[in-house]
Write a structure and sequence with these properties.
This protein has 179 residues and is α+β, with helices and mostly antiparallel strands. The chain is built from six helices and ten strands; from the N terminus they run E-E-E-E-E-E-H-E-E-E-H-H-H-H-E-H. The protein has helices at 58-75, 115-124, 127-134, 144-154, 156-161, 168-177, and strands spanning 3-4, 14-21, 25-31, 37-44, 48-50, 53-56, 80-88, 93-96, 106-107, 164-167.
């Protein structure tokens, strides 16, 4: 979808760019140094779902972020981002190669395919220690560790080629900075 014009502003030399990468859309906003909202754009995308499986391609996250930033910047002529902030939905993750490129689609935080792996983890993890360590109330099939175990079992070739486990924010930071 297209962007939303907040209101016309005079040229701003420095601004803060914010990417809020949600479950079904990227919100790209620009703020003045005093945190006045200058522009905002919403770029929606669809997830691939099949039962408890919920996935998204890296390319759609990048395309939505790129389009959102371009749209927001067009709404605030002269705005030059001096800082970028990224927030993302839950623990959406993928396996990546040495260069940081995903080897498979992202497993969205809603994906709970790893319930069997979570059950195995529950049998060896003390629930109280798990909560005190992670802040999470329970081990579920949506837990990144359970998903990683699922990937190791069900996608052994991809798992063997993986150099890194990236959360969505890690991937976007790498895309923006090369690190």
């Amino acid at each position: 979808m297209g962007g939303t014009q907040i209101q016309a502003h005079e040229a701003v030399s420095r601004c803060i760019a914010v990417l809020d990468v949600g479950t079904t859309a990227v919100k790209a906003c620009l703020f003045s140094p005093s945190l006045e909202l200058l522009a905002c754009s919403v770029q929606e995308y669809a997830l691939r779902t099949q039962g408890e499986r919920v996935e998204a391609d890296a390319a759609q996250y990048k395309a939505a972020a790129r389009a959102g930033l371009a749209d927001a910047l067009s709404q605030a002529p002269g705005c030059i981002p001096a800082a970028v902030s990224i927030t993302t939905q839950g623990e959406t993750l993928t396996l990546a190669d040495r260069s940081g490129e995903p080897l498979r689609p992202f497993l969205v935080w809603l994906d709970s395919r790893a319930e069997n792996e979570a059950q195995a983890l529950r049998s060896v993890l003390d629930n109280e220690t798990f909560y005190k360590t992670t802040g999470l109330p329970e081990v579920t099939g949506a837990l990144p560790l359970a998903k990683l175990l699922w990937l190791r079992k069900h996608e052994p070739d991809t798992f063997a080629r993986a150099h890194k486990l990236l959360l969505l924010e890690d991937y976007l930071l790498h895309w923006l900075t090369g690190r």
